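Feature request, filed as a ticket because there's no other form

It would be nice if the structure record came with a short human-readable summary line next to the tokens. Right now we just get the raw output. Example of a typical job, pasted below so the devs can see what we mean:
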Amino acid sequence: MEGLVKVPVKDGLFQWTSPSPMLVVSGCSACGELVFPKQDYCPECCTDTMEEKTIGSLGKLVCFTGITSPPPGFKGTVPYTVGIVEFPEGIRILGVMTEKNIDRLIPGMDIEIVMDTAFIEDEKEFLTYKFKPIQ
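Raw output as currently delivered:
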């Protein structure tokens, strides 16, 4: 993958150039609700008082499942696993796991956010966040 230009799969989802990648969320200044991905309106109190924030890179795995058939438009490889991770800030986020074997995953295990290749296309390496179990 040498020589490929690295780009995020979507701008504004994460900060990826620092040693500890962070997800970008919106926090409502009226009610405190956190949402990912960031958005302009609060789904809880229906106000436009959302402010961009980042959350830390460590969380706990809540639940997970294995995927063996790719969904329409998916450019990655199968099989893969997805999990819901709860972060100390009080938000739960769905994401792809780095561990493909569900037998190695345990609810409650510590997870960190890492940057990984989602797919390669047109001389570009598209990066995304993934959840990696901390051993």
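Something like this underneath would help us a lot:
Residues 5-133 form one domain.
The first strand starts at residue 5 and ends at 8.
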